[in-house]
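Protein chain data
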Amino acid sequence: MIEVKIPRDIRGYEAKLFAGLTTRQAIFGASAVAVVLGVNYVFSDYIPIEDARILLSIFFALPFLLCGWIKPQGLPFEVYFRDVFLRFYIEEPIRKYETKNLWEDAFKYTDEEGEMISEKYYESLKSKEKQQKANAKKYKPKKSQDKDDIWLS
């Protein structure tokens, strides 16, 4: 009887296309070969040293090879690289811990003399001040008589 090894997590299984390579590895491997040949062809006139061209082609083909074979933390390399690059170099960091200025909070609710009062009393004082300002705008004081008017009468 033929036995087949089955991985414990079925999501970890990847079907092989040919020569023991998955579809993803075959596509990215072919892309890397195309990049190596293209770089060698383009730079053959500009870089006469073959070793330098080989190093340059490896440099350009490496991202394709990483995307095909490497899966850090179970993610495809391009997704992992994008997340890490964005998190550490592009986006503003998320600050989970924020300090609290205790002195500012301690003196937030004070009256005119600098005495500490409760938050509710502070709010009631502020609302009374707003109400007084609103009333002052409603009722304008009468104009006082000029000094000249008093002497003339």
Notes: Residues 147 and 153 are 11 Å apart (CA to CA).
